[in-house]
Prior knowledge:
single chain, 233 residues, mainly alpha, Serine Threonine Protein Phosphatase 5, Tetratricopeptide repeat, two-stranded antiparallel ribbon, 2 strands
Amino acid sequence: xxxxxxxxTVPDSLGxxxxxxxxxxxxxxxxxxxxxxxxxxxxxAAGDAEGQFRLGLLYARGEGVVGNLGDATMWFRRAAEQGxxxxxxxxxxxxxxxxxxxxxxxxxxDHASAVxxxxxxxxxxxxxxxxxxxxxxxxxxxxxxxxxxxxGLAPAQATLALMYARGMGCDIDYxxxxxxxxxxAEQGNPAGxxxxxxxxxNGYGVEIDLSTAASWYEKAAAKITPMPKLxxx
Length: 233
């Protein structure tokens, strides 16, 4: 889904929260990220899941606010706990990969700690109570990814399949991997189509079927934008 559209997860499109979100999206499209942050923050404070999700995205991207993955994760979690599937997926990705936002809060801390680490540590606790980094946690990533996948979010289905195929947060389970790759592929998701190709080409939990593998590879390749050719001279 385009980040400029309201997610279908939350039905409120006419109430106060819906108006705040639409105003925030319009502001963001114009590059007015501070105004977008203001509107999303008001919706989030009112308990609106879409507002919480959008606020999390701004923290993750450092748009209109100091970038901080700790704060982003907190807002993703609040929306995810209300059943917002895209927030559940983003939360799963933060736990899958871990890390921290580029620049933003981590950049501030690095500069401050170079001057006085003790003061920097104290200020970090005051300014960023949610932390500035998120550790990888594959079981937690699997849990949230499955919740999003069960709601039909194709990218989450493909990622869940990958986790089962690689045993990330679980034992390797090729049957589950194939099932979720297929669910994503049925929606035309190229990662799901590619995953099925890998499954059939290598015989992961199935008989090797190169013809079927090639068919799925072709479907995925047709959706991938080729890199522009560079001039030879």
